[in-house]
């Protein structure tokens, strides 16, 4: 496995890969790797001849009161995990290597960044956009792999790639969870034993939500309230947000109309603090249609905007 | 010469060039080509195996009251000029092709865009940054060629390329002028015969300025005033700005200190309206040192910050 600590080394290595026409998959990370990252590496290995991993804790995407200084690091363990997952090259730049001077260029994605973590962490996605853009230019991958745990990040990066005609395919990959459901995160190590045990309410709430979503007449307001109520059963949980939005544009939806009226994909996303540790999780809600009993268009039109409560065959 | 009107066509063509390992030079333009553009194409031909030209009048870099709707066009003449200069491929997208949806991503370069045309044309360089970034991603050139007539644009793009680690070398090329000195511009066709004849004051003023700059004790305030005075001899000229700044960072300099105290490269840039037509021009000011008489460091240190007025050997 090749380790590059400078842009020049990386560019030389990438030029060698491209010269032989190898397809390149790229997994950008902030290190302290876990099975979620490993699943991205394996997906990249499946789809590309070469897999490149980057490990860089990007100061620009941390706010002044966030956990930049204590973000966990373990380079030796990260490199072992990368090698055991078949990574071909790792880019491990210092902050000075990535930002030799203060960048004057900013890269911002409007609208999609107004909500969720964009609202809670001002400037966060500007920092993400800038560093991902730099890494894409340095690595020039055919495909780049991102975990859906950061669903908003995936949406922001897909918009940036599309708007800027970046020649890379973004491949979103499923959230990887602990056996009890907690989404894997480098930040989970911050949790005390008690917080760790309480944190299971997050994935539980999302799981319940996918059932509640199927209930006739359920609306966004009630669904969010039910999720918040479930999370609040954990005494240490302090909710930052619980929001149901359209995906991937993250537009708001009516809080009171039945969710059955909405045909766009929906993202239920949450951020919750346990002590100083802020965890995020989410799921995409999909309607489970019972094919045998589905109504035809005429019958639906006969009862516009109401009556779904008595038509359980539209829901599970 | 290959003509591509869609991104897909262009990408396919570029992939074919890259497959054979050809180096690619790129000349992005807004069309209505003149000898200034031709000089960029020839420079690209000199330095690369393949030269790609783009012609796209980018609506995002025009303000609401600017000349987008009347910007001159002559596709047949442009293609003939490109072909006669040995261009290999031309990218000629429609606005809908370049912007199928309203971009949510913005790309801004701070500081360098605060002055000159950035101040006179708010949002102009954001539009330039976005479209140049898109074109760079689509063409993926080794080198890109820009005329120094748009010196601020060159500085903005160089900063963007550096900040974002874009894998392209920016090659600034000298301003091409009419025999009487007027800088070539697609907008020159807007000028009436009378305005065209008056417009010679711009290049004259810059030429004088490079002499005035050598005068002992000359400072920014006086130099700018002298340039403005010369331009105001043309009765139709309405000055937008005349500014002396450091180049390429476009930082301000002391208005009153002798210019001899400043060791950084200086840009003298101007924008002047003749009727509805806004023309820009500029020159880099360089001190003409008389090598035989140049002082050594000790002598300079002996008279810090003053006394240069009596040392003509430092100037021409």
Automatic annotation (TrEMBL), chains A, B:
Family indicated by similarity: Belongs to the pantothenate synthetase family.
CDD domains referenced in this protein's UniProt entry, alphabetically: PanC
Keyword presence, Ligase: yes
Encoding gene (name): panC
Miscellaneous comment in the UniProt entry for this protein: The reaction proceeds by a bi uni uni bi ping pong mechanism.
Protein purpose: Catalyzes the condensation of pantoate with beta-alanine in an ATP-dependent reaction via a pantoyl-adenylate intermediate.
Keyword terms: ATP-binding, Cytoplasm, Ligase, Nucleotide-binding, Pantothenate biosynthesis
Positions annotated to bind (R)-pantoate: 61, 153
Cross-referenced InterPro entries: Cyt_trans-like, Pantoate_ligase, Pantoate_ligase_C, Rossmann-like_a/b/a_fold
Identification of the protein by name: Pantothenate synthetase
Binding-site list for ATP: 30-37, 147-150, 176, 184-187
EC number(s) given by UniProt: 6.3.2.1
Native organism taxonomy: Bacteria, Bacillati, Bacillota, Bacilli, Bacillales
Chain positions recorded as beta-alanine binding sites: 61
Pathway annotation: Cofactor biosynthesis; (R)-pantothenate biosynthesis; (R)-pantothenate from (R)-pantoate and beta-alanine: step 1/1
KW ATP-binding (keyword) present: yes
Catalytic activity, reaction form: (R)-pantoate + beta-alanine + ATP = (R)-pantothenate + AMP + diphosphate + H(+)
Subunit annotation: Homodimer.
Leader sequence residues: none
């Amino acid at each position: 496995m090749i380790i590059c600590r400078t842009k020049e080394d990386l560019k030389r290595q990438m030029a060698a890969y491209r010269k032989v026409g190898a397809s390149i998959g790229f997994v950008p990370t902030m290190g302290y790797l876990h099975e979620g990252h490993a699943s991205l590496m394996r997906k990249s290995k499946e789809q590309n001849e070469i897999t490149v991993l980057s490990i860089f804790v990007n100061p620009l995407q941390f706010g002044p009161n966030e956990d930049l200084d204590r973000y966990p690091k373990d380079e030796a363990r990260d490199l072992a995990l990368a090698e055991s997952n078949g990574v071909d090259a790792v880019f491990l730049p210092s902050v000075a290597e990535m930002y030799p001077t203060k960048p004057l260029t900013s890269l911002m994605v409007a609208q999609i960044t107004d909500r969720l973590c964009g609202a809670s962490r001002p400037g966060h996605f500007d920092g993400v956009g800038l560093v991902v853009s730099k890494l894409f230019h340095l690595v020039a991958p055919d495909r780049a792999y991102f975990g859906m745990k950061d669903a908003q990040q995936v949406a922001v990066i897909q918009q940036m790639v599309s708007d800027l005609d970046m020649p890379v395919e973004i491949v979103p990959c499923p959230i990887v969870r602990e056996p009890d459901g907690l989404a894997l995160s480098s930040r989970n190590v911050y949790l005390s034993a008690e917080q760790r045990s309480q944190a299971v309410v997050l994935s539980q709430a999302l799981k319940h939500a996918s059932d509640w979503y199927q209930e006739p007449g359920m609306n966004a307001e009630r669904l969010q309230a039910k999720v918040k109520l479930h999370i609040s059963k954990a005494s240490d949980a302090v909710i930052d947000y619980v929001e149901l939005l359209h995906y991937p544009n993250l537009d708001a939806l009516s809080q009171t109309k039945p969710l059955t009226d909405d045909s766009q994909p929906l993202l239920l996303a949450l951020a919750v603090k346990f002590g100083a540790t802020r965890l995020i999780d989410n799921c995409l809600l999909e309607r489970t249609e019972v094919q045998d009993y589905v109504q035809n268009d005429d019958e639906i039109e006969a009862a516009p905007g109401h009556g779904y409560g008595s038509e359980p065959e539209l829901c599970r």
